[in-house]
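Data deposition worksheet. Section B asks for the primary sequence of the deposited chain exactly as it was used as input, without tags or linkers unless they were present during the calculation. Section C holds the resulting structure in token form. Section D is free text for depositor observations; keep each observation to a single sentence. Incomplete worksheets are returned to the depositor.
Section A, Depositor: J.P.
Section B:
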Amino acid sequence: MSTTPTPRDPHYPVAHLRPPRNWINDPNGLVFHDGHYHVCYQYNPYGATHANLHWGHFRSPDLLSWEPLPIALSPTPGGVDLDGCFSGNAVSDGDRLVAFYSAHREDRSFQHQPVTCAVSHDGGSFRPRGELLIPELPEGCTMYRDPYVWQDGDGWRMLVGAALADGRAAALLYDSPDLETWTYRGPFAAREKEPISGTDLDTGEGWECPQYLPAAGGRGTLILSAWTEPTGPQSVAALIGEEHDGHFKADPAVPVDHGPDCYAPALLRAPGNRWLLWGWSWEARDEAWAVADGWAGVLTLPREIHVDDDGTLRQQPATELLALRGEHAVHAAGVTDDPQPVDLGSVGRAFDLTARLEPTGNAGLRLLTTPDGSEYLDIRLDADAGELVVDRDHASLDTRARGGSYRMPCPTGIPVDLRVVVDHSIAEIFLTTTGQVLTLRCYPTGQGPWRLQARTARGTSLGYAVDAWELNPLVIKEPSTGAVEPALTSP
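Section C:
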């Protein structure tokens, strides 16, 4: 099989990690081991739909150059994971990598995916355990899946996402001295559905993919992906608080990503006690379109994440990604009080932008993707609401692409600093001022150069300083023969 995507697919990202084709979803098995960052992901080797889930596998020494490795986990015929190796994580234990994951079988309830594991001694090939690691589910679980294991002192701990018969969503806690024998300790955190602060979303009926960022002298963070019947995945929230005797006491839930297209984020503990996070950005277009193009889903940029001294969750692109900046395409600064837009310059389909905006009212930036300006993505400050608005209602002339307008809180009366990374069909808008982020997908149709504008409402003054760099692709090494997609027969 060829390992390159369809030539010049205008929507295929170049600086975001994904395999050349087919379906991906959750990032899995994120771990730093033997000098490399390992990133696995839910992967269907047979097509661009959610089915036949394996773990694909990349590794990198620097987050910039990535080596595709053989598929890490495959369903075992007749085994405990017969119908899919679903989500989980991995830990580095001496000279071995141990992956923990949800074992899926159609003859079990879809909502009950018990935990199993697999071990690698060479950082690439994994030997599955062959039986369940935790065969018995705690009583009263109506949903159970997605283990997250981390080292705690001399021992190990595990969270498993769950929904409980009493109506609460939960992250269940286990501990182990040796990664083999696990003891159930009860719910680490459990809550009835509640609003996610500042949004019209809620924390769901069950929690998928729980991730724990332990306190580092301050407060810890439990990241959860909210799931609700019958719609399924909803949104991503964080509980920020402190652990007491195996129970996590936290404030009301806050959003992890304010956009519509980020789910199931996963943590990686990097050297220097730095924490990185990748999310899954699903498609925001008709499934038939994605299937025809032969690929669906992409991982977000790796983000540095921490809880600030003021107790807020802050994210920014990993520092290493500055090295992907190429030609300095736009450098514009000035003040305007003219309702006529100010042209700032042209950018390619992948760029990294910084902006400082100082408005007296409503103002913002527009990315025009057709020569006549009929197709555009708006990033604007709504001073009256105290919000940053990202509007994709006009971002694609193709009616098969989703629209919508999305918001995150933005302080007024002070300069607003932004970092915007656009990569063909994914945009990640970082509000540097507050450390918040908004991820969305859009599918521009325009063939010519894209243009940036500064825009102001009548009666508003805008001071602006905008710089944009072309975004160079990640280096994806050529895999050894058959390393990514061995000769597979359709299931």
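Section D:
The chain has a mean pLDDT of 95.
Residues 287-293 form the longest helix (7 residues).
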